[in-house]
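#help-structures
NK: newbie question, is this the right format to request a structure? protein is TetR family transcriptional regulator
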Amino acid sequence: MPLGSTTYHFKTLDDLLVAALRQANEGFAKVVASRGGLTDPDTDLAAELAGWMGEWLAGDRTGVELEYELYLAALRRPALRPVAAEWAQDLADRLSRRTDTVTARALVALMDGICLQVLLTEVPYDEGYACEVLRRVIP
């Protein structure tokens, strides 16, 4: 993309990165929306969450890696922090429909950790392991 195109649409690099992180966040949101397991109280929550991660990580890893790079860029670029926080809060809010708020936040943190470990170690995602660990957090 020509530099002129980006500077026309985005006044600063932070504006561009915020837009990119918002778009990347939509990828996981699409996985969540497509499965719909949170609306059914009879759905095994741990299995549903493990399935989300499996579906997300099974796709193009480039997009997943980019999302985490942008997410972690918030450590150095404060403009990204609210967008990163929005994603985590939105997911915790969705999970709070099935569990308490503290557990929902713990599940978000655990899912983040599992995904990040898979990306960093290049160890294949193990849905059974993820499901077992998630069940240990869910009351």
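mod (FA): yep, format's fine, and the tokens are attached above. The longest helix spans residues 13-35.
NK: thank you!
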